[in-house]
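Incident log entry.

Two folding requests arrived from the same account within the same minute. Monitoring flagged them as a possible duplicate submission, but the sequences differ. Recording both here for audit purposes.

Request one:
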Amino acid sequence: MTRLMAPRPGEIVRADLDCGIEFAADVLPGRNTAALVFRILVGVADEPLELTGINGLVERTLSKGTKRFTGRSLADAFDALGASWASLSGRQSTIVRVLCLPEFVVEAVGLVAEMLCRPTFPDEACEVAVELARQELRQMEDEPDELINVLINRLTLGPVLGRYPGGEPQTLPRITPEKMREHWQRHYHGGRIQVAASGPIDAESLARHVDAAFAELASPRREGREPAAFEFRPGREHQQKELEQEYVAITLPGLPKTDPQFPVEQMLLRVLAGGMSGRLFTEVREKLGLVYWVGAWHEQLRGKGIIHLGASTTPERAHKTFDKLLEELGRIAEDLTEAEVERARTGLIAHFQTEDDLTRSRAAGLSDDLFHFGRPVGLAAKLEALRAVTRDDMLTYARRLPRDQLCIATLGPREL
């Protein structure tokens, strides 16, 4: 293990452990809790097309039985520590998050290691997980906000990365307990794991415990760190569905987190959709009354970025809503004001210094740093970058937005 220098208060440290894990810790003296994020670099991108959904099912059943615990006794063990935990799976990674008292952080690491290193995937639990996934797909037919997300993600990200993580009707029946065990054996090893910790922790001691706890997954192979494998291709798709509302989703190329201009994009989107003062809410909803809901946001896969705009409206107003969304996206490059710039900056900094300064958020941010940058960046550097953004920076970026390269998805009774 690379030796960790004794960190100063508030310092972030990083090490490559002997088992292959990338480890980083944000040492925060005086906090009352410790947070851990275990990121396994496997997701939808790693699934065979014929087994779409298998990674999410593996994530769901990791905790249903291990060599030492039944699913019930593992849950009881976390509860005995007063620890809260959750897991989720996505396009490029699978995450286990834990929040606990500092005195129980070593025990919490041991429980997560038990879950990730020694799952048994009981047949009955696997079969239940598949059935629940099938039920969720059926339920999604009654949730148009979910359906439009599936539609725009597939159109934007393509047939591999854009697949729905919950699986597909034709693939879920093929996912057996044995297939799930094979997926875990192939992808769960030290070379695909990143661990981020925050709180009043002894970073060097915790790193040693993580290294020992995951020794049986040791691997020198560094995998799962490739940029997202898709090329943005403009397109349009409509799904006919008899609804009271028409759902409109638009995407265009954005920036990865590693781009120096990423803070500019953050501030631009804050002007567009930063609460009730955002332009979209003010112009599209409040002044014109076109929509029930409207928003803009961005997402970042590794090495890529996507900007999203979305709205729900009546079928009769869908065309006008679509035109107005694009009009506002273009207008921001013409009449952005200094007051809007400062309001966006203040809002983002406030979020960073409140919500993002929580212990669990600091661990999540550090995990994102490892995922996107391969190194810690830290809150201070992100705040500095935001403070450096100027109105001219934002105008230049807004004018360069590729507004002629759009993916457009609609769901409802009328096609645009």
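Request two (distinct sequence, not a duplicate):
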Amino acid sequence: MRKRASNPFQHKVKSLQADVRTEENSIPSHNTIPVPKKKKRATMFQIARLVYLLLVFVTGCMSIVSHQVIILLLFHNDPVRKAKFMRFTKQNFLVLLVYMTSKVSPTELIVTFGDSPALNNTVLTDPKTKRPTFNLDNHAIVIANHQIYSDWVFVWFLAYLNKCADEIFIVMKRSLEKLPVLGFGMRNYNFVFLSRNWASDREYMVQSFRKVATVGKKCWLLIFPEGTNLSTTTYSKSLKYAEKAHLKPTQDVLLPRARGLYLACKNLGGTTRTLYDLTIGYSGHPSDKMAQDVYTLSSIYLFGNGPKSISIHVDAIDIQHDISGIDFSEDSTQLSVKKEEAEIEKFGNWLNERWYKKDALMKQYYETGKFENARGKECRMQLKLGSSLELINVYIVPLLAYLFGFFIYKVVQRLLH
């Protein structure tokens, strides 16, 4: 009988308890009020940098959304051109995020690859920038473990290196759709927003995934099967879920949920052969601490304390041949409920096994600081744009529209006088 895995955060709890006992023992016998520890305060430079970043981010987002509004007005009855120009704004959003992150918290990406033949000759060199680029499948489903809120930015950057950043579709929780300005922008990108309720999400997912399947030659669909990032609360829920479902608990990842990914594979199976499984590790924190607690938004963008390196291990899975017992070319709308549930159970078992391997990879990462590398090679690059001039694309169209409008206004004003 397999021994149940221990909770990796027990060490942290014990450490905290020991600290409390030490503090209690060090209190003098007379009644004194302990002096609280001072919180870390931002320097004037850090505050000025944050103001600059906020200015860039707010004006950039407003510019992108303004561009989208222009597209919707001009190409309302021309879906082909509308989609083409929306793709341009989608890449610009990533450009904005990468520019900000690279300026405040420079990060090195270390990418390793599994031994699948589909990952042969995947790293190329851009002849213009001399930077690494990827030759991965342009039409794929991408899954990853979820540790911090900005995981998706780094996966999106891989799509940027693979020349398909303008055709990435991300599955997110529905609450993000309601964000001011950003929610409107992401809806125009056809991101998939879920309420995490199978009854209400199923038909919506089928329609969304079918739409994604027909966008063209380039398409990355990004899904985090864990559904949320790793935290003390979500890990506790994962342990309870494992106990309820009679599953082996994990140590450094959350147990995945299979239904959304199953529908994605089922509805993209006719046009998509490849499923990329990414395992992401952040340097600078031990396994008994949460990456989301160490690398908060304020830590990264105010204090500049982001991860010095991000390791990403890539495995490739052939959807049709590597996942046995399921016909992914079959129309999901024609399945009986009984057959669909049986397939979901099979798919769930396969996905759990993938996640146990991912958990082992994460354990190895925390012990050695790197992922296994069967090929003996790794690709290292800085998280930064090919050229800072790409940032101009974020602002150029609304700026030209403003100048054109101002010119017309002046002409009309002169004619009237």
